[in-house]
Amino acid sequence: MTSKRYHEDAEVLAAIGTAIGEHRITVRLPRALAEGAVAAWQRDETGPVEAETPEQWVLRDRAAELALIGLAVSERGRPDGEFVVVDLDVAAAGAAVRAARE
């Protein structure tokens, strides 16, 4: 019975994700963090991926999320004193918050 309830809960969570859709949120990043994200975007890491442990996969996934934030900063970032203001996809912002909590 619990498995069925979890499956139903997962469907509701997915529906919420669909409702949120492509919304963006405006964030203010310290300039050094924004520059670090842009540097991640600009790296050339097109080689093959070697076998990974689950921990290595998580780290690579986080690096990819950072690079996508860097893309957003490079395309839409606006300087604001010691900060950069950028509209981020909620998924990218959520990935950063999850990384901070773990």
Automatic annotation (TrEMBL):
Protein name: Uncharacterized protein
